[in-house]
Amino acid sequence: MVDRVRDFRRRLQRDSADRVLPTRHGTAILGDSIPDVYDHNYVTVEEPRVGASELAADADEALADRRHRRVIVEDGAPGLAADFVTEGYTLSTHLVLAHTRPPDRLVDTSAVREVPLDDLLPGRTESALREPWGSVSLAAQLNEAKRRTADAMPTRFYGAFADDELAGWCELRVGDGVAQIEDVEVLQEFRGRGLGRAVVQHALEHGLRTADIVFLEALADDWPRELYAKLGFTVVGRRDFYTRLPPG
Asked: Can you give the pTM of this predicted structure?
């Protein structure tokens, strides 16, 4: 299972990139037309055999014309964290969770329906602009990144609605018998109504009909991982994201 999830991720990384370049210790994934989208501009390292300073040097070279730096250690290597801090990086650990058992309960998903990506763009833009780092330019780049990912792999988008108003969304990517639920979001004013659970359950049901592995990722220190556990997802891996933010 873990190998198939890894192969799925590699395929998506490369197929949605403008350029894929070898570095001394990993691979640079570059989105030249969306340079401020961190998830499309980074150095990925499968099995680190050198220290943080060497990996940071790789990022400096590969991302020289980007404002940020990011190194993703695909299988995690906790011993690197302290050294990356000295390089000015912060660590964000993503847990890889695969669906392995039935949900603890099922909820009504009648508020969720499949929609075109274009129907989600106003909500996605609004969500980005509400963030401290949000800007019109970055929101546009994030939307373009979403189009690029959908072009690289078959993707279905689901919207959760409250009184016909878009309240939340997620997507389901499927390739080679593997499905990924991604980009789960509920706008602040609609939270607490169970829409996050409903939209993920809806995507999960479709994923189980089209793939034999369904997975997602969650921040190790954020509450959604508790919801995903209730929906039947268990931890099968981790990925460590080391990021150095732009100055100022």
From this structure: 0.95
**Which residues have CB under 8 Å from 222's CB, separation 6+?**
none
Q: Are 94 and 241 in contact (CB under 8 A)?
A: yes
Say how far apart CA 175 and CA 37 lie, in whole Å: 23
User: Cα–Cα distance between 52 and 38 in angstroms, integer?
Assistant: 19
Query: For the chain, what are the domain ranges?
Result: 2-96, 112-236
DSSP 160: E
**Residue 76 pLDDT greater than 90, yes or no:** no
Nearest Cα neighbor of 245 from 16, 59, 78, 82 is: 59
Backbone angles phi, psi at 231, to 5 degrees: -85, 0
Terminal-residue alpha carbon distance, the chain = 42
- Classify residue 236 as exposed, middle or buried by CB count within 10 Å of its CB (0-12, 13-18, 19+): middle
CA separation, residue 233 to residues 88, 100, 214, 224, 225 (Å): 33, 6, 9, 11, 9
**Alpha-helix runs per DSSP H in the chain:** 2-15, 52-62, 81-86, 117-130, 136-152, 195-210, 224-230
| CATH homologous superfamily, domain 112-236 | Gcn5-related N-acetyltransferase (GNAT) (3.40.630.30)
Tens digits of residue pLDDT in 164-219: 999 999 999 999 999 999 999 999 999 999 999 999 999 999 999 999 999 999 99
Give the whole-angstrom CA distance, residue 164 versus residue 147: 24
223 and 186 Cβ atoms separated by less than 8 Å: no
Q: How far apart are CA 167 and CA 153, in angstroms?
A: 25
